[in-house]
Structures
1.
Amino acid sequence: MARRAQPLGIATGLGIGAAALALTLALGTIAAVAWRAEPGGAGLGAADLAAIRFTLLQALASAALSTLLAVPVARALARRRFPGRGVLITLLGAPFILPVIVAVMGLLAVFGRSGLLSHALAPLGLGPVDIYGPFGVVLAHVFFNLPLATRLVLQGWLAIPAERFRLAAALGFGPAERFRHLERPMLREVLPGAFLVVFLICLTSFAVALTLGGGPRATTIELAIYQAFRFEFDLGRAAWLALIQVGVSITAALAAFAIAVPGAFGPGLDRPVAQIGPDGRGLRLQDTACLGLAALFLILPLAMVTLRGLPGLADLPASVYAAALRSIAVALGSAALTLALALPMAIAIDRLDGLAGRTIQAAGTLTIAASPLVMGTGLFILLFPLADPRLLALPVTATVNAAMSLPFALRALVPAVAEAERSHGRLADSLGMTGRARLRLMLLPRLRRPIGFTLGLSAALSMGDLGVIALFSDPGHATLPLQLYGLMAAYQMDSAAAAGLLLLVLSLGLFWIFDRGGRARAEP
């Protein structure tokens, strides 16, 4: 198919430049880490090998539990229609933009030594629950990733053509036959990908390990990198650990393609699946229990943060509000930079043929292979001979957060740009509309919704980040997540609860403002 006659030359050039910058941030920082690493891995010791082993084991356990628990929850959502179902499905996306440290506070309020569960077990003569260590790390990862795995598995269930279920009912299939012929093939296709996505996320979850891990039994690779920087300033050891982290992440990503199973079903007639199989009382009770427990697991920690944080909001020290302002500035800067990179890249991907477009898209998604801490390590190594990295803590944090948000931004913008050009591109060509006029009059009005989502997602993710800032910043330039971590470490739990509530409100508020703004101004 021939390309349009009036390409956006400037935007395409900017897209190529943005892709080059993203590639430099991803590969350049990894190259800096590789250059700094000592030959032969002399800097690694027994503790580092234990950190590598624990990282893999906790990621495997977290991914396995998240995907296995997601199956009954997704099945219940697929075969039930009830008031509030849409709200519950929306709630399943909330943990993705939830500040990690706020969720950890909520989990401590429920599962900690003085939490709700420990108080409930006390009359039975059972000791308090200890959430710190491997158990807490896995529990927090399941909290964050069970909703994601449920969404992925739910899409698999809804993709089974309704005609297959009607045929199964006509043939008198019972639950075992339906599972063997319909559900098991779908799960074989969906579960490996969901497992590896969760596994990748758990490999690079620094804030969870920082707050709930630590110690010889619960140190991850990223936590070991942080300790090598902050406490030992051993750049060689940190560099080797960063390279290992990148290698493990890339291996897991390649495995996701290697074990993919082809789809087991042909096309259907796009009819909704109103009910999967017979609807007995036992099945209704089972589905109700699954949905109720999942909702309780997700909502209760956030409710506890809200209840414990409200009384202390008025008494927060000025340093917390100063940190909140710094976090807002970083979040807004990160959101603006994300859009400045993603929008021209999305236009260039649509404009360029074949390999060139795929190369730009690959450059935009490559940042996910290098975790924020690895990217921060590389930037620290590059900046250290030139300036004090602590003075650049906030700009560097905003830049790394923008790079990490870029793959999600492209996921939202690339299809929207393609659809706008497909529906209105010929008309714009016939009117001689190019350059800024084409962007302002044809593209931007039709991209307000994905642009709003992109800005909101990037701002929310940056607002709650406790990764790069922990490497660079000092207490005088702390962001709100780092300030909150300091309050928790000092056992000022009342102030920490109030600061956590403030962080939660700001993160969700930024996402809502941008996303709502994009949807409100979008064309009907």
2.
Amino acid sequence: MAYKLNDKSYYNNRELSWLRFNYRVLAEAGDTRNPLLERLKYIAITSSNLDEFFMVRVAGLKDQVKMNYAEPDTKTGMTPEEQLHGIGELNRENCRIQYDMYHELMNELEKLNVFLLRPHQLHQSLQDKLEKLFDEEILPSLTPLGIDAYRPFPKLMNKKINIFVDLSNELGKQTAIVQLPTVIKRFYELSHEGKTYFVLAEDIIEEYVYKLFNGYKIDRTFPFRITRNADLTIHEEGAADLLIEIERFLKERTKGAAVRLEIDRSRDITINGSFLEEQLSLHHEDVYRFDGPLDLTFLFELTDKLKHRFPKLLFKPFFPQQPKFLGNRNVYEAALKEDIFFHHPYESFQPIVEFIQQAAKDKNVLAIKQTLYRVSSDSPIIESLKLAAENGKQVTVLVELKARFDEENNVHWAKELEDAGCHVIYGMNYLKTHSKITLVVKKVDKKIVKFVHLGTGNYNDSTAKTYTDMGIITTDPRIGDDAVNFFNYLSGYSLKPEYKELHVAPFEIRDMFAERIDLEIESHKKYGNGYIFAKMNSLTDKRIIDKLLQASQEGIKVDLIIRGICGMKPGIEGVSDNIRVISVVGRFLEHSRIYYFYHNGDKKMFLSSADMMTRNMIKRVEILFPINDPRIVEELIEVNELFLKDNVKARMQMPDGTYEYVKNDLPPLSVQEELMKRAIKNGEQKKTELLHEHSNILERIKSRFRKQDV
């Protein structure tokens, strides 16, 4: 049949779709079902997300405009300039809502006797304390930067808050800038008569800034903040040592061109920042003026300060449970019998940590090979890898130095691992290695067994508590052989292997998706029961989008759980009316990638580190792995169905690209809440089984002693 494709009205622009996702995060701040301090965190998350969006995505578009690159995007046909205009319109509305929510939630805090005030609003005794604090702690670290013919406009740091100062004396008017030093706190806490007051550092500096300019009158001050281009090129070709090149790149990043100027105009609504705009070579649409403090990520620290005082204003504590498929067994003993499935953060990440820890100490383990993309700042996995090398094991670690905004951290870990005797690989030329795989080669009963962990998320014990991810540990010989070939391919010189079970990007994963969709179409033509389910962070690849549109037009039901960017519009009659797109934004960050093809009951289930994004499938080394154990397949199908039943946190994309909360007649169900309940119930059952087992052992011991007495 002739498919309906390539009409720009069928697609969403990537950047605008991302902004709609960030709005869904922001909407959680307005959801009164969430506790107050958690709502404040969502405002902070929105700000943090937006910083990275401007440093990378907006910066890239601005570079294209500067180079007169007017090529339209492949789906909506928008040029870089049109995209920037669309971003400006949508983001200004999002920011307006964000600051309205911020003021509303700060008013709620005031009902709890917690106030964010400016110095002049405080009781006189507190003002005196604050002035002393300024004189002793803040003033010595400040450097006023005058701007005139002899002192040019300074190179201000990325994302740091500055105070713009207009001043004058009998000789005329002058301009200066005071940057908030990184050594001072963002806010200071004071108490008086049972009330808690927080005062922002920029407000304190503005109040007493006259002390920096003796002999001048302060005419006007206002805080501002610059966001710079952080999407600079890493020169891999010809780099003698990528480690050194990355360190050079990190220094260059701080000097990137300005892409956004933010101004706090809450003291003076007439401020327009035209002088700054000119000095930074920005356009009017690059300037954002807010009636409130800049960089709302300070709310992370603020809520952290308040959490012990108001524990009921946080989500009810949840502790990850023992994995259902592992139970109380040792991970190595269990994996010899069957595949083990893990679902974080509902189930603990600790068995994965112990998988490496035990391998480091086990005299029967010959080698450990692992890929690392992002790890925690005090990673127990890193410590275990170092210990393994010190214990004489062959340890190979691929540390991806190009993991954006984790480069510095990864350089640090790469050096530590090398010093400990590990063989460290820095990644591959022009590709990011985003795969999540560990291979442990162990001698069991005089035979070599390959234990393989594959996952959808990073080996990060910290984010494993807040990101939803999945993984398996298997001793399947075919997957073990693939793992050996995968690591040999990364560390040496060889052609890309022919894998038996794994699908490895670049290219192979996208080809496999296209092939699977085609097979589902053929199966549907025969049996009329075609079904595709996919869960991912983002969908942007046009080839795959068009394949899904073809499947819809053939009558196949397609369910997509997409947290963030979605490049297609579902529900368009005759085009995508068999496609449903749902986004779940809740307590945990949805991060797992699940791909399922019904194929007339021959259920094909896959997990992956990759989204259906062009960059994942073409510019990265990713792994997609099959789930061959029928028990795990059924477990995943059950989880998938829960996502489709969510009518609390799930939002459905409408044919115009906007999102609305899912509404149905089913009892209220949040997939994340339900999975937490199930994990707790399973954990309690496992504890009961363990206690029963211990009781039986104790009874047998007592019985033996009684027989001996007789």
